Amino acid sequence: MPPGLVSNLQEVLLSRKGDSNSDSNAEQEQSSEAPEPVEFDESKPVVLVTNSDGVDSPGLTHLVQALVQEGLYNVHFCVPQSDKSASGHSVTLRETVEAASAKVSGATGFEISGTPVDCVSLALSGALFSWSKPMLVVSGINRGSNCGHHMFYSGVVAGAREALLCGVPALSISLNWKKDGSQENDFKDAVSVCLPLVNAAIKDVEKGTFPKNCFLNIEIPTSPLSNKGFKLTKQSLLRSTPNWLAVSTSRYPPGHFMANQVGLGLQIAQLGRDASAAGAARRLATQKKNLEIVESTGAAGKSDPNSIKKYFRLEFLDKEQEEVDEDLDYRALENGYVAVTPVSLSPRIETDIQIAASDWVSAVLPGEK
User: Fold this and answer.
1) pLDDT digit string (tens) for 306-348?
2) Considering the entire predicted model, what is its pTM?
3) Which keywords belong to this entry (predicted)?
C-alpha cells in the first residue's frame, strides 16, 4: 500500500487535540446547525453507515456528520428503529419489515424495524436505495467494546459481517464506553481518531488494495484522544459469563408500578400477539407516504392459559482473563491502543488474512505497531 495515504495520522490527531479547546465554541455552533441533505453525486463513492443502537445514537450522528463534511462521498445510513445491541447475526423472518425514511446530519437513510443484519441486507438488496453496492459499509460507532467472543453477540459487528457476506468491504467500530467515566462527546473524539482510517479504507477499496476476505473490527479506547496509536491485533477468547436472573412472574422488578399486575400483564401480552398482524397493517397504512415496504408474512401467536410461565433477565458478568498475549484485541485496548482486528469468515485462511491485513495497516499507518 502507498505509505503516504495516512502518513500524517499522528499529526492530525495532535493538531485536533491541541485545537480542541480553542475551537470548542465554534464546533458547538456548527453542531447546532444540521447541514442540509445533499443531492446524490454519481461521481462520488457510496458509503453506507449502520449500527445496532438506532438513529439517535451519538456514535452514528457524529460519524455521519464527519463523513458528510468530508464532501467526498454519498453518505447513506440504514439503522434499526430501536436498540438491537447483542442481537448477533439474527434476521427477521415471517414478519413484515418497515423502512421509514429519515435524515441525520445531512445524510438520508432509513430506520428499519429489524436487526442490524436486516438493515445491511435490505440496503444491499437494491430494493431500498437507488444503488445496491456501496464502496464501504461502516458499522458503528458502538457504545461499548466488542472484543473476543463478544463479537458473536454483537449487533454492530454482525452488520459488518453481513456486508462482507454480500461481497462489500466493511469496518465495525466500537468505543470502550465506561458507564461512570465516559461522556457523549467521547464519540466525537472517537470519530476524529478513526476517520483517517475510514478514508484510507475507501481509497484502497477503489484501488483494489484493501484486504480481501475479511472485515476490520476497530476498538477505540475509553479516552480516544489519549490513545497510544493503532495496533494490529488478534481476536481473543474474551468472554463474559452469562448470568440469568429469575424475575417476578409479572416480568417487572419489585417496586415497579406494574409488578402486581400479573393478570393484566398477561392479557396485554396476549392482546398484543393477537393484534400484531392487524396493528402492523394499520401502521403501514398511516405511514405510507414515508415508508418503503418489504412484503413478508406473519402469524399471530397462540397461548395456553394453563401453561406455567417463568421470566428471566440476562446479564453478563466480567471474569478474569488468563490470556497474556499483548497482541490480543482486549489487551491492546486495555493498554490504550486502538485495536484493529481482521475478522475472517473462514478460519482456514486466518494466517493469510492476518498477513494481508498487517501489510495494509503497516502501509496506511506507518510507524504503528
Assistant:
1) 788 888 888 877 766 666 778 899 899 999 999 999 998 875 5
2) 0.71
3) Hydrolase, Metal-binding
Mean of per-residue pLDDT scores for the chain: 79
C-alpha cell at 302: 397462540
Which residues face 143 on adjacent strands? 175
C-alpha cell at 240: 463474559
What's the one-letter identity of residue 67?
L
Percent helix, strand and coil across the chain, each rounded to 5?
35, 20, 45
Burial of 191 (0-12, 13-18, 19+ CB in 10 A): buried
The contacts found for 310-314 with CB under 8 angstroms, 24 or more apart, are: 310/246, 310/249, 311/246, 311/247, 311/248, 311/249, 311/250, 311/251, 312/244, 312/245, 312/246, 312/247, 313/244, 313/245, 313/247, 314/242, 314/243, 314/244, 314/245
**pLDDT tens, 266-315?**
343 344 444 444 444 444 444 443 444 343 334 445 667 778 888 888 88
Query: How many helices and strands in the chain, by DSSP H and E?
Result: 11, 12
Cα gap 117→119, rounded to integer Å: 5
Q: Which residue has the cell 429469575?
A: 246
- Cα 38 to Cα 35, 112, 188, distances in angstroms: 9, 22, 22
Quote the distance between the C-alpha of residue 261 and its chain's center: 37
* Region class of 10: left (phi > 0), else alpha (psi between -120 and 50), else beta: alpha
Instruction: Enter the C-alpha cell of residue 284.
Output: 403501514
Q: Given this model, what pLDDT does residue 297 score? A: 38
Secondary structure class of 140 (helix, strand, coil): strand
What mean pLDDT is predicted for residues 201-222?
Answer: 95
SS3 266: helix
CA–CA dist 156, 52 (Å, integer) = 5
Q: What is the C-alpha separation between 59 and 176, in angstroms, rounded?
A: 12
Dihedral sign (CA 225, 228, 229, 230): negative
- Strands (E) in the chain, as ranges, are 46-50, 74-80, 97-104, 107-112, 136-143, 170-175, 214-220, 230-232, 241-247, 291-294, 311-317, 338-344
How far apart are the C-alpha atoms of 276 and 279, rounded to whole Å? 5
CA distance 292 to 307: 39
Q: Which residue has the cell 445533499?
A: 38
